[in-house]
Amino acid sequence: MEKALPVKELNVLLVGSNSSRKYVVGNIILGKQAFKSDVTACCEQGEGEVCGRRVTLVKAPGWLRGYDLCNTPELSKTEAVLSVTPGLHGFILVINAEIPFKDYYKKTTKKNLQHFFGDKVWDHTIVVFSHRSQIDQETIEDYIKREGAPLQSLLEACGNRYHVLCNDGTDSEKVKELFEKIDDMVAKNSCYETLSTLIENAELKRKEVDKKAEELRLQSQQQRKKLRDLMTEPTLNLRILMVGWVFSGKSASGNTIFKTDMFQTGEITKKALKQSGEVAGREVVIVDTPGWWKFFPAMFTPSPWKAEISNGVSLCSPSPNVILLGVPVDTSFTDDQRGSQRKT
């Protein structure tokens, strides 16, 4: 089969979940550190000369692996749609080959991509498997076979186009082979053209979000001014109580305030923990507490956790100056969750 003519200026969109490591794949392709993380609210762009071509990679915001579309923040949905530029040659769907590919992940991947880019997205998509170490073609074939129907049906939707890039460094030959596969895809299906209605709706949503954000900013400024006017002198000793649902980033926020690792992150907090230190010339006490489940009512929060949340208030004796409610921005915040927060 005759090879397709190479595209001189390659314009590709990187898509995938927040755990797919698409930022690493982008860095491997460009041969430099153009991207830092998968978890971003807005699009990021990287450019460079690669294998004799001018390459532009846009990394779209990701989604939560295995969670329904409704849990993807509206801002991320809007930014993903608006990340499409004229003359887009295709999508690189990054899948982390170190994580089992279950049926629910296949469903959420399909729902997210089709919601963002329409049903024709599959004609312009190639799957790239990311991996930390070198794996050969036979190994990736075994992985596809082992994962079974969920992964195989996703690959079939993409015309069985896939490639492997390893995270342990750049591989110019592998990148060149990837470009050749994209050339073949473009020769067969042309460039991707998005529906004008998708872009128009996304632009309208972005304007609405920008307007609300400006209103909130002005409201916040006014509230801070009122508080400053009421204060006769600053509080020298500050006591902060951290609350929020499980994995909302409470512990990480406490570490950010202290500018050092005072609280354990990456694990479920089960005990209230008090830490203190000097911040901006003040003695600050922060008490981290267990969270509650995001998707379940307060009645399902384990009793020991509830007791530890109450204990957290006691550790802020005589009382906390402020309660900080942790809300992660990489997931949605629905009316049901708002009600659950208030009840808790």
Low-confidence stretches: none
Name of the CATH homologous superfamily of the largest domain: P-loop containing nucleotide triphosphate hydrolases
Q: Note the beta-strand portion.
A: 15-25%
Please count the helical segments.
Answer: 10
* CATH architecture tag of the largest domain: 3-Layer(aba) Sandwich
> What does the radius of gyration come to?
24 Å
Q: Any idea of the CATH class of the largest domain?
A: Alpha Beta
Q: Outline the biggest β-sheet.
A: 6 strands, mixed
- Amount of helix: 25-40%
As laid out across the biggest beta sheet, the strand order is: 2-3-1-4-5-6
Q: For the terminal residues, how far apart are their CA atoms?
A: 64 Å
Outline, from the CA principal axes? elongated
Please give the oligomerization state of what you see: single chain
Keywords: Coiled coil, GTP-binding, Nucleotide-binding
Coiled coil: 192-233
Family: Belongs to the TRAFAC class TrmE-Era-EngA-EngB-Septin-like GTPase superfamily. AIG1/Toc34/Toc159-like paraseptin GTPase family. IAN subfamily.
GO molecular function, one term: GTP binding
